[in-house]
Fold these 2 entries.
Entry 1:
Amino acid sequence: MKIKSYSQILISQVTLWRSKGVRGPVDIWVRNGLVEKIEASSQFKEIPPEYQIIEGRGKCVLPAGIDLQTHLRIPGQPQKETPFTGIRAALRGGYLGLLAMPNTNPVIDCVKVVQLTRTELQEAVASYGVDVFLSAAITLSQKGERLVEAQKLRDAGVSALTDDGRGVERAEVMMGALKASSLTGLPLLQHAEFSGHGGCIHEGPIQRDFRLVPYSEEPEWRMVERDLELLKQFPGARYHVLHVSSKKTLDLISEAKRNNLQLTCEASPHHLTFCVEDIQSNNTAFKMNPPLRTRSDRDALQRGLESGLVDFVATDHAPHEKEAKQDFGSAAFGTIGLETSLRALLALVKAKKLRESRLVEVFSAGPARFLGVSNLHGDICEKRIFRAVLIDTKKSSQISESDFESQSKNSCFIGTELPGEIQGVFNGKTVTTF
């Protein structure tokens, strides 16, 4: 990974992907980190000598991504991820913004820990220029009992509240959280799962071969069903469902949206790519929460992503050391996703299951609006800071451990052929190459 500074560049004859549509070939002129001009390509154009030319023929450029669910493991879990490895992983995958999850040690549930987390991240953020937004827990220590002080956390700059890793099980606590959301404007990100099921992976070949407890979709959809009833009492709340995994849950969300309830949801790249039949017996990175489900569930998520029912893609990047992922029965839940997410979405584009403009919406523009930073992220247009990813869409490669910057290598995509080669991530006056 190399970071270089530049003053003027011209990306010539490139295809520009935006959430508003696809345009190309175009020439993109960038001066001092700002997009100076975007115009139709012409081979007869006079190019001032101070401009560095980047050949874009056969390539695309799109806004850099924002991931709404990243487990940076900061503070307190350096054996899983460090500030530098996590942020480098984001860059490797084309992300310039992350929403860090609070299930850390200690849990991010008060202003003091927010400040501690920012201090630990400060050097890596300054070195690589990736914006890290912080979420805080919904309940103290994520125990599901007492609510955090949402207003103080918002004033401290927290962007969202979530008990990610577990669901808010008590209805009265969730009602209090929805009320706090409506008062502060902070979104609630619900990890939809009622505990007590003891499940490991969805019913399927590996589950039966290893005699593992099956993990059905019921704990997920029942919590979403409960929450949607509560949401009717708090129309000003911002309710978001993390990592939807089942068609049943999607059906509930679809009905709620038709009835004008205000909510959003996301899918993870692994749930959009794999199903339970794809689980490999020798790769415990295929154990995640929620688990991979049926082909029908996977296909419903793909359709929902293209139609707009699924609002965003978020990686649920969950790094673990090797000792935590030894066998399916005892392994921790989680797979990493920052480095492979964009290429997994390119695979859906290649398969004609996702439009290019829709990819930009779920990867970049939509998450930027969700966090209220669409003035800085999510688009490429004149007079804006150039935050973009340059991709050679003609190339493809099989994912291997060498593709990862993360401290951990627990990826379910290892061995999978994915299209696209990320050739540069532009961030104002710098470009990162790999």
Entry 2:
Amino acid sequence: MHDHGRVLVRVSYWCFLKGIGYGISTHTKLPSEVATLRFLEAHTTIPVPRVFFYDNDTDNAVGGAWMAMEYIKGVPANWMWQELSADQQHQLCTAIADVYSELMNIRLPQIGSLFQDLHGQFFVGPMTTMQFGENGQVPPDPHRCGPFLSVSEWLIAVASGYLKFSPRVPHTEQKQNRMKSVINEIRGSDLVRDDATPFVLDHVDFSMQNILIHRDNPTQISAVIDWEGARFVPMWAANPIFRWPMGFPAEESEHFLQVISERISENVPQWKDAFSHGTDDLRSLGDRAVHSTQAGEGEVDWTKPPYHHLSGNRFFKI
């Protein structure tokens, strides 16, 4: 038996919350997260925990899917941010940008999530989600979640509601009409048909609470964690909500977002183009696909250009 040192065991279990109901995730979520971690360990320099064992608990022996992984010392970057000097904050933002740049340089030819077969080979399979369902909802059917060979196939699946938890009751006529309208727009879109943006690995919760840093050397990243729901999408669709510490002044966040965006643009020139105003219409269509089955008419203001959280979008002077 191998001695793996200090090990962290994470169990995903059914949870019951008063007034909300139960939470359940798709059976593809944990295998995909494990495959993503192993892929990153094998093919990148991004620091991630090593996975030793995992089990999807199909026999319900544990009561939830689980995995045993390497315990990595470190604290979330948002915990220590206020203790850092301005120079240390700048260095950490540069390190964060370098990690994200490496993600943007991972390219595969399909849209979906990573998996690993019995021979250890990685492949793109159905897209997973980190979302948990609520009472009365059913998880997405993996057979309708990809992988997708084109942006059009993917956006139609998004607009159809195939990739998210859904209520057991049918959609209202209003939602069905809106969904059909968006799908027809996708099918007739020259922007979608002609889009040649590469498919990159998207950490959907890439944020400071999921970036661990060394307490003694806080400008060095010890691990990037929480890869649930990671997926390959067109670069213009990779838009994690980058969260700063609570109470962080807006002018400082804008400054450091510019530090991050300029560094990523240096490392990955194509990234800047993916979030220029030239892609506003394409990203707006992607947003409408996401909202096609959940927002009522007038609830979303589509006249405003899509906002890119990591860059702020406004920093790109096109």
